[in-house]
Amino acid sequence: MSRIHLIAPSGYCINQPAAVRGVQRLETEGHRVENQQVITRRDQRFAGCDAERVADLNRLVTLTGANTIVMPVRGGYGASRLLDEIDWQGLASRQRQDPLLICGHSDFTAVQLGLLATDNVITFCGPMLAGNFGAEVLDDFTMDHFWRALRNETFTVSWQGSGPACDAEGTLWGGNLAMLVSLIGTPWLPAIENGILVVEDINEHPFRVERMLLQLHHAGILARQKALILGSFSRSDPNDYDAGFTLESMMDYLRARLSIPVVSGLAFGHEPQTVTLPLGAQARLRHQDFHTQLTLSGHPILSK
């Protein structure tokens, strides 16, 4: 079984019962869950003051032990405040020796992309303690894809996607769209060429999703990729004012403007069901007639 080391670099976990439930489930399965004190820590809307939260990350440099999974309690907001205080080189050096399996999503995307930009450090975009492991009903799809990603040197995610036929290979990268866009022009956005970009978000109206994707387009970032994968965009319902402008019509508009294939429909993001993807791994995306496969390799895994 594994060792789960908790961190809390972002928002305070307002759903304390969910976090406790997540810990209990992991412990029942035989995993050791450590650093649990970060669950209740609070400063304003954050999971502790900036110094405490960045210390969670910088202490990973000296964290020892095999089969260690590092997992945020939740997302929210707060990681952006820490970026210029994180020991990026120390973490990158630590990962070259005996990689920690770092997994999270949402606000944590800023840290994950910063690590990828520093020294191609691969992390996993996937479930977190409170929202996923602490859900009232544990989702079998999410758990299966989580352990599949962390235990297999090569694995494939399959879904019924929409978009043009394509067969593309490159570095997989991305995560939360708003966090990715917030890093444009900073040292923490990876300069990925010929990659496969995968994005998701929550609480963003379709026009905001379009605006962020157009920013990536206008900045020349999308043109340098082999393909774009759209995951879940939770709570993005249009209203009466939109008069037919929907997430689907926005996707059609983007496909007409972009020179790269845009494949949608991946269960990836803030929904109860989400796949786990290694950001920085080698990927092959194949899509034909609503049959889509994404094969990943080259990422760290748990030892047998």
Structure commentary:
Helices cover 30% and strands 25% of the residues. It has 304 residues and is of the alpha/beta class. It has a seven-stranded mixed sheet. Strands 2-1-3-4-5-11 form a six-stranded mixed sheet, with helices on both faces. Strand 8, helix 8 and strand 9 form a beta-alpha-beta unit. Helix 3 packs across helix 4 and helix 8 packs parallel to helix 9. The longest helix is centred in the first third of the chain and has 13 residues. 48% of the residues are buried.
Secondary structure topology:
Elements: E1 3-7, H1 16-28, E2 32-34, H2 50-58, E3 68-72, H3 88-97, E4 101-104, H4 109-119, E5 123-125, H5 129-133, H6 140-151, E6 154-159, E7 166-176, H7 177-182, E8 195-202, H8 206-218, E9 225-234, H9 247-257, E10 262-264, E11 277-279, E12 282-288, E13 291-297
Distance between the termini: 10 Å
Question: Into which percent range does the helicity of residues fall?
Answer: 25-40%
Largest sheet: 7 strands, mixed
Q: Write down the Rg.
A: 18 Å
* Overall morphology: globular
Spatial order of the strands forming the largest sheet: 6-13-12-7-8-9-10
How confident is the prediction overall: mean pLDDT? 96
Structural class: alpha/beta
User: How many H/I helical runs?
Assistant: 9
What is the N-to-C order of secondary-structure elements (H for helix, E for strand)?
EHEHEHEHEHHEEHEHEHEEEE
Strand content: 15-25%
**Poorly predicted tracts of residues:** none
Count of distinct strands: 13
